[in-house]
Every structure is written in structure tokens, then in C-alpha cells.
Amino acid sequence: MTTEATPIGPMRTKAAAPPAVVRTPVLQSVWTWFWVALLAACIPMLVIYFSRMWRLDHYQYFPFAIGAVVWLAWSRSDRYFYSPSRLSSLALIVIGVLTMVGSWNLRTPWMMSIAFVCFAAASLAVMRGPADKSLLGLALPLLLLVRLPLGYDQLLVIELQRLTTLMSSLLLDVLSIPHAVTRNVIELPDRELFVAEACSGIQSVFTMAFLSTLIVAINRRKLWLAPIYLVIALILAVGGNVLRVTMVAVADQWLSLDLASGWAHDILGYTTLAISAFFLWSFDGMVMTLMHVTGTSAEEHADNPIVAAWNWVVDDGKNVDAVGEYYRSNQPTTELNNVGLQLQLARWLNRLQAKPFAIAIGLLGVILVSVTTSSAMRVSAMGVEEGARGMFVDGLIFDPPVYLIASGNSGFQLDSHQSSRGNENPILGRNADAWMFSTTVDGAPIRGQFVLSQTYAEWHELCLCYENQDWRLLNRTLEETEASSTAPHTAEPFAYALFGGDTEARGHLWYTAITADGDFVFPPERPGRIGRRLADAADDGLEASIEPMMMLQLWVVSPQKLDTQAVNRVDEMFDGLRQKIAVAVKASRGTTPQRSTGEQAPVSSEEVSP
């Protein structure tokens, strides 16, 4: 009798776990000190750069940007620093080194901020964690640490002021609130609302831009969505500021409440900013509702190129394809001799994981920090104790005696002096002195206004202010008279601009800046002209002159363009007057006037908002 043998089923074997990777302790790793050396080398210049950024209200989000990126990197990564084995990481390091060298040569903290962002992004590109193969997306908020170059934040202010004024006026028309609009001033029956920097959206726009990049980083959105989020943030910020301006007018006309100043204005501003941020978060939810993958992952439906392309574009990595993962886990392992370029690079770089290389990296870091510190010590920085906030600095540089300015002037008169302090006249600035200017050239009377406004944190481009008053800039040049070249103290050219309008009338503007030491500032190239700005930056560097200064201007409106002789005559008058003020400032400071060296100051690439 035979018994039927029990059928033997297929053997089930459990795949052996791969051997654990033995890693060098993080504090002993060469690459830990490599990244620390690169980032630490930027610190001396960044101290100056961030001290300047903090004085601009619309850039004061940068500590939150740095803190958010550090927190996200700490919470998402395995807290280990890897070698720069990715091509993107190597490219960022090369760009960072080039901008660092440029910062040393030109002594500009602005270029060092670019190097810092590149080094940080390169480090994040090779970091990884349980749910992320790369943390490069976390570098997106760091991009907003780099200030807009070539004065484009000024141009942004102008456009936002115009847009905010226009939309607020339309909304007031809908609400049947009587008003009139004069340039960027909304005139109500019993008061005027100046649509200045704080109400034009400049602060909230940069804050909203930061929030948009933070949302993309936190929610692991596709990087190609970041520009769309930035545009939506811009629209929502302007909408929030239109709401703020309108609420000020409504409260004034309907409730007799003053929401234009004090703590009430601050609360209103934060409230509208919170509303804008809520709508931005809501937009993110709408995008993820509409733009979802078809299936469970971007690898599904590979036979349908349209669906596969759509999934590749919108997949943010949160969808898991269990079948695909199981299939890939059973595929044969790639031979080590056939590994990709990235893995080969990683294997080669890991050979540097030795004590001599760690010592060499440490010495390199010390050298880089020393060179940056030496370069930073040659950059003039305005101390925090001077109280700079935004484009203004607290206090006065020079309180001009009326008799000093109005007397002893050859060929012209300054009369009808008006003085305003404490932002009494927002059009002229926080503190201003204005005189009526009059002279006669070839029997033709010329009249205008001479204004001394203070105290600014840096050069204030007055062309933008007059363009904002519906004047069209026709030409802007630098003027220098024979007297200025032989002046008993440092002299620089001054700016002259010609404006036109809808009629034959022409506006003529002479303007310059005088620092607290009584020195003139070389006029930067006009913002917005990229070619000239870049050419001047290549010749003279990108360093910004940021220190307390006064702006002097002479504004003349003529029925038609002044001839060359008249312009030259006023050039001499304006130059003589600015020399007199500079001498008086030096005398009040107890400094000795110095003869001009003829050396041209570096052209400023960073300018404050008008």
C-alpha cells in the first residue's frame, strides 16, 4: 500500500535585507566641514548685507525665510551631509564660487548673497530624507534673500502705486464716495490720502512672495508652479492693499474714523495681509484639486503619452504605485560597472573621506573666511545705532539757516522759504526745506523750486518721483561744471533730467545727494535701463552707497525747452549752491574740506523705493 505523497508547494523565500551602509559620523565627515566652510565663508559679507536689508521694511521677512528653510531641512532630512555628487549641485557650487570671487573684487555684499544662496541650494540638492530624494525645493524661499538688482524694486513701487490708486478709485466710485485723484493722492472732501509706499503694496507684495515660495516648499509642489504662485501672490497683495486704502476712505466718510495712522492703520494692514495670505493658501488647494495625477503615480499609463506627460508634470511624489514598487523591487540589480555618472561621481568623491582631506577642508574654510572678512572690512556699512528704517534715517543731517541759503548767491534768488518736519509734507519727504528759485537768462525769467529733503538711507532717484506725476522722462545726463572740478572739497557730477508732457511745456530737474560728511554721491544710472546699468556695473562694481544723505533738487517748468545756454547757466547756479551747502555741512560736522581726487565712486546697483 502506498501513500500519496504530499505535494510540495513553491518555496517562499524572504529577500535578504541589504547590508547597512556604514557612514562616517557626521562631525567627522569631510563633507560636513566642506559645506560648513562654504557657508561660513559668506558670513562676514552677509552681516553687512542683512543689516542693510533689515533697514528696508519690505525685505524684513528674510529672518523668517532662513529660519523656515533650516527647520524644514532639519525635519525632513536624515541630518547628514553628502558629497556634491549631483550635476545640479556642482553647477551651483561653480556659480557660487564665481559670485564669491566677484564679491571679493568688487567688495559688494549683494553678490555674496547670491553665493550664499547657491551654496545653500547645492547643499540641499544632495541632502535627502525618508520621504525626499532631494531637498532642493527647500531652497526656493532663499531666492528671495537676493534683493532686486538695478533698481527694479523702485520701478515696482511706481507701478504698484499707480495700480493701487486706480483700483481704489474705481472701488470708491462703486461705493459712491465722492473723491478726486491727483497722481497718487486720493482727495476726499475733508482730507487727502497719500498712496505712498506702505499703501501701494510694496511691503505686502514681498511678504506674499515669500509666503508663496514657502507654500511650494512645504507642500512639495512642482517647482514649475513657483512662478504662477508668485504672480497670484502679486495680484492678491495688490488686492489687499486696494481693500486697505478703500477701508480708510470708507471709515473716514461713513464712520468718521481715522484709520490712516497709528495702531488702527497697523491693525488694518495686518488684517488685509492675513486675508491675502488666506486666499493664497486657498489657491494652493484649488491647484491641487484641479491638477492631480490620472492613476496612482506618474509611471502609470506609460502607453498613453498624453496621460504620461500630464502625470509627469503634476505628480508631486505623494502618490504611491504599490504594483510598480513591487515590480521594481524584483528586478535584477544593476551591475556596479554599469552605474550612472552620478553614482560614479559619488564613489569617486567618497574616496576623499579621510582625515588629511578633512584637515585640508578646514584650512580652506579658514582661508575663505579670512579673505571675506578682509573684503568686508573695506565695505562701508551704516551702523545699526543710526536707526535707518526703510528709505529714511531718523534725524536731520543739516538744519539749513534761511539766511545762509538765500543770501550771497550770484545771479539768482531763493525766497519764500517753507519748512516741513515730521512728514508734514509727504510729497517732499519726511523733513524738507523748499525755496522759490528765480533768475534771468538772456532777459527771460526762469522760476522754479529748490528743495533740500532728508534724511535718506541712500540715493533717492527723483526721476521716478516726477514720472509718477505724469511727466515723461526724455533724457537724463550727468553734468559737471568747471567750478566743480576746482572745488575745495570732494566733488562729483550731478544729475540733470529733461521731462515732457502732452503739451510743449518741459520740466527740468537738477539733483544731487550730500552725505552726512558733506561729500557728494556719484549719481547712479537710471533704474530700468538694463544695458547701461550692467555696463556701468562691470566698470565700477555693484556696491551700493548706503549711508545717511540729503537730496538736493531744483525743479523748473518752462513753456518750452530751455536752450543750451540757459541750461549751462542754471548748471553753474545749482553747482554753486550745492557747494555752499556741502561746505556748511562740513563746517557743522567739524571736518576739514578735502580737494577732489577725481576718483569716481562706484555706481550703485541697489536703490531704495521712492
Structure write-up:
This protein has 610 residues and is of the alpha+beta class. The protein is built from 18 helices and 12 strands. It has helices spanning 30-40, 43-54, 62-76, 87-106, 109-126, 152-174, 202-218, 226-254, 262-290, 305-314, 322-329, 341-350, 355-376, 402-406, 462-467, 482-485, 530-540, 564-589, and strands at residues 180-182, 185-187, 192-194, 388-389, 392-393, 412-420, 431-441, 444-458, 472-479, 494-500, 506-515, 546-558. It has a 7-stranded antiparallel β-sheet. Strands 1-2-3 form a 3-stranded antiparallel β-sheet, with helices on one face. The radius of gyration is 31 Å and the shape is globular. Residues 197-201, 331-339, 381-390, 535-544 and 592-610 have low confidence and may be disordered.
